[in-house]
Write a structure and sequence with these properties.
Elements lengths: L4 H45 L7 H6 L2 E11 L2 E12 L10 E10 L3 E12 L2 H5 L14 E3 L11 H4 L3 E12 L3 E8 L1 H8 L5 H6 L10 H10 L2
Parallel strand pairs: 5-6
Antiparallel strand pairs: 1-2, 1-4, 2-3, 3-7, 4-6
């Protein structure tokens, strides 16, 4: 049955809405990823502005990569912690890569209660540890040795052994959470987010060590700040 021209005109707005839906979702996803990027940048800036949290300049000068993670943790008996983050790597010429999006999570079992926001910065001190991110899910502390990193005010803790540890961990918790007994945490690449945000088919190795994707205006402040504090 053929539709009259007037009926076709009535259907036109609905058809246009269907055609526009994927583009609207893409724009919304881009806005969400930009917000996540800005949150990770704010975490790093807040750490460095707080004398009790700041990462020492000596650690930053020798860092091969930074991984900034923002998570929310909650539970009663089974605890779950899930969030997002970004990773940046120092290239051979000393410049820093664009931030690549990652996923992060943790599960814990035991008597536990509460909710908490967990902000963590992992400072990766060697290239082999950075490459572990390429293979997918990695657990720092299990797949690579990790210790709590010294703060800027703890100059006496700065030793050669500290600076050659594969992963130095800096964290801040907000909220109340108690009683977790057995837990395992992980970080994983987020290829889909990187493909969508940067409109590129490249994967984590190319994003971190290649010059194929240029920084967008949204990521430039973070890259500039990392470049500044790691000189």
């Amino acid at each position: 049955m053929l539709l009259a021209p007037r009926s076709l005109l009535r259907l036109l707005p609905a058809c246009l809405a269907l055609l526009a839906a994927p583009f609207a979702r893409a724009e919304a996803d881009t806005d969400k990823m930009t917000a996540r990027l800005e949150t990770c940048e704010a975490i790093l800036r807040e750490f460095q502005a707080d004398p009790q949290l700041a990462i020492p300049s000596e650690v930053l000068r020798q860092a091969k990569a930074l991984v900034i993670v923002n998570q929310v943790k909650g539970g009663l008996v089974l605890g779950l912690q899930y969030g997002y983050g970004i990773a940046l790597a120092r290239r051979d010429d000393g410049t820093w890569s664009i931030p690549a999006f990652i996923k992060a999570g943790e599960a814990s079992l035991g008597l536990q209660l509460g909710g908490q926001r967990v902000e963590t910065i992992y400072v990766l001190m060697d290239r082999d540890t950075v490459r572990r991110l390429f293979d997918g899910r990695v657990n720092f502390g299990v797949d690579a040795r990790a210790i709590a990193g010294p703060r800027a005010y703890e100059a006496e803790k700065m030793t050669k052994d500290i600076l050659t540890t594969p992963v130095l961990v800096y964290g801040r918790n907000q909220g109340y959470y108690a009683g977790a007994t057995v837990k395992t945490g992980w970080i994983d690449r987020n290829d889909r987010a990187n493909w969508d945000y940067y409109s590129t088919p490249y994967l984590l190795p190319e994003l971190l060590y290649g010059n194929f994707v240029k920084p967008t205006p949204a990521v430039r402040p973070l890259v500039d700040f990392v470049s500044q504090i790691t000189r």
